[in-house]
Structures are given as C-alpha cells and as structure tokens.
Amino acid sequence: MAEYPVNMIHTRPSAVRGPRSPEWRSEGDWSRVPRPQPSIVEYTDAAAPRNEYPQRIISPSHPRACCDTDMANLGLPERDRRWVYQYSRCRTCGFTVRRLVATLPDEAALANIRQVLARAFNRWNGEPG
Fold it and tell me: Cys staple from 67: which of 36, 63, 91, 115, with CB 3.0 to 4.6 Å?
C-alpha cells in the first residue's frame, strides 16, 4: 500500500488537494484552462425573451416545465473548434440553450495514434520499426 499521511487515508479523493486544485496552480497554469465559448444567448430575467437569431437571443435565466416538451432547434448546426452545436429555444417561454450535437475528432492526435500503431504492427510482423 502506498504511504499516505494519516489525515488523508480516509478522505474522498475529491477532498484531497492535488495538482488540479486551484490552490496549487500558479497564474501561468490557468492559461491552459479552456475558456467558455462565446455565445449569442444573454440570460436575464429583467428583459422579455427575444429571438434575434443569429445575432442575439435574450433568454430567461432558468428553464420551466414547458421546456421539457416544447424545445425547437434554431438554424443549422454550427462548428466551433472540435464541437458541433445548435441553439434550442422553448416555443412557450423562450428559454434557450446551446446544445452540443457532436464532437469532432482531433486530427493531430489521430495521425499520431495511426503512426504509433503502424510502427507497432511493423514490429509485430518482424519488420524493423
């Protein structure tokens, strides 16, 4: 068994401070954290819901019971980095969400994996790798 400090033996892993906790990060490390994607949706309860798609959408801040059955897609799916998304809006109350439709593969990572597998397969066949 690995040696742990006595006060950490019976704690949940999420409760233990580690390299991912904010207290352990320097200011430079935060530059690698993905930032929220820009959105055309403004969530507010101070203004009436408005659909000015594709420029802007004013939406209530929280969904209501009608949102479970009355959501409609706005426009066509759009691509942002490695994501395909589409806005969905409730026809009754105007609540809007940005719904992820698909994840696109990381082409650089796939090329690297293909190269590693090709080398491994060549070695398996007895060819120099």
Answer: 63
